[in-house]
Amino acid sequence: MSDHQFSGALLGATKPFELARFDPAAKPLSSGDKARDKAAVEALALELDTLQNLFYADRRFKLLVVLQGTDTSGKDGTIRGVFGQMSALGVHTVGWKAPTEPERAHDYLWRIHAQVPSAGEVTIFNRSHYEDVLVPHVNGWITPEQTKQRYAHINDFERLLTETGTVVCKFLLHISKDEQKARLQERLDDPTKNWKFAAGDLEVRKQWPAYQQAYSEAIAATGTPWAPWTIVPADSKTHRNLMIATVLKQTLQGLKLRYPPTDPALKNIKVV
Predict the structure, then answer these.
(1) Is residue 229 within 8 Å of 219, Cβ to Cβ?
(2) CA-CA distance, 90 to 214, in Å (whole number)?
(3) What is the pLDDT of residues 157-181, one digit of tens each?
(4) Region 61-70: what's the mean pLDDT?
(5) Residues 6+ apart with CB under 8 A from 253
(6) What CA–CA distance (Å, rounded) separates 269 from 30?
(7) pLDDT score for 61
(8) What is the pLDDT of residues 184-232, one digit of tens each?
(9) Which CA distances in Å does 17 have to 67, 93, 190, 191?
(10) To bridge 119 with a disulfide, which of 23, 59, 79, 224 should be the other Cys (CB 3.0-4.6 Å)?
């Protein structure tokens, strides 16, 4: 487990976790040269494309990548920078919004389970099932007991996924309040980015301390051996992509992927 990974079960269920002790401006994997780091991200993206092709052919596993973080933390940018070289065949992205009325008529994980990856598929969650605990918890729509219950549900759900062949990689994109301020202002100042801004973003920003505490509690409750969290310092967009791409490369290489055995019937076929 790296310095920026957290598994609550490994550290003990009662051990507190404080997101504030992680520096959002840290760059533990940086070479110290931004241009070199950008080149490294581009090279990793190409390596991930090759690994994803093998992953798709192998079909023994599924990969679920959870990108969680506050507004402007870089979820969209991560998808472009880390996964942009992968073939659209076998890669699926889900951008989670507030549940619809039909979705609310079911349990809160019903819509999530329908979108998890199939064999050989990489699925990226832009936000995730964690929103269905964080948002109602911060706004007081569910009780502390219900919050605890939902995290227990999520642990069981993620364990079900991993025990049936899904590799779960959860990334918390951790930015500072000052960096969020700059990025929100950029969305207001740049006409090509106005569409990204919503008035509600400012209201949520007022709840910054509550959300930081909620994230700390969520990570402590759901960092497990089967689905640990990786805390990604994300004030630097380049380092954010470098760190996530590095973790995913190590994860895929650790699966010892292989092409399926060749059909013996193909051995003597000649194309004319």
Answers:
(1) yes
(2) 33
(3) 999 999 999 999 999 999 999 999 9
(4) 97
(5) 51
(6) 50
(7) 98
(8) 999 999 999 999 898 888 999 999 999 999 999 999 999 999 999 999 9
(9) 19, 29, 37, 39
(10) 59
Per-residue pLDDT band at 93 (split at 50, 70, 90): very high
Q: CB-based burial of residue 235 (10 Å sphere; 0-12 exposed, 13-18 middle, 19+ buried)? A: buried
Residue 239: other Cβ atoms inside 10 A: 21
pTM, two decimals, is: 0.92
- Nearest 5°: the CA angle 86, 42, 6 is 80
The amino acid present at 18, given as its one-letter code, is E
Name the residue type at position 237: K
CB atoms within 10 A of CB 167: 21
Calculate ∠ Cα 256-237-94, nearest 5°.
60
Question: Can you give the three-state secondary structure of the chain, one letter per residue?
Answer: CCCCEECHHHHCCCCCCCHHHCCCCCCCCCCCCHHHHHHHHHHHHHHHHHHHHHHHHHCCCEEEEEEEECCCCCHHHHHHHHHCCCCCCCEEEEECCCCCHHHHCCCCCHHHHCCCCCCCCEEEEECCCCHHHHHHHHCCCCCHHHHHHHHHHHHHHHHHHHHCCEEEEEEEEECCHHHHHHHHHHHHHCHHHHHHCCCHHHHHHCCHHHHHHHHHHHHHHHCCCCCCEEEEECCCHHHHHHHHHHHHHHHHHHCCCCCCCCCHHHCCCCCC
Tokens standing for residue 212: 């930081």
123, 113 in Cβ contact below 8 A?
no
Rounded (10°) CA dihedral 236, 251, 67, 194:
50
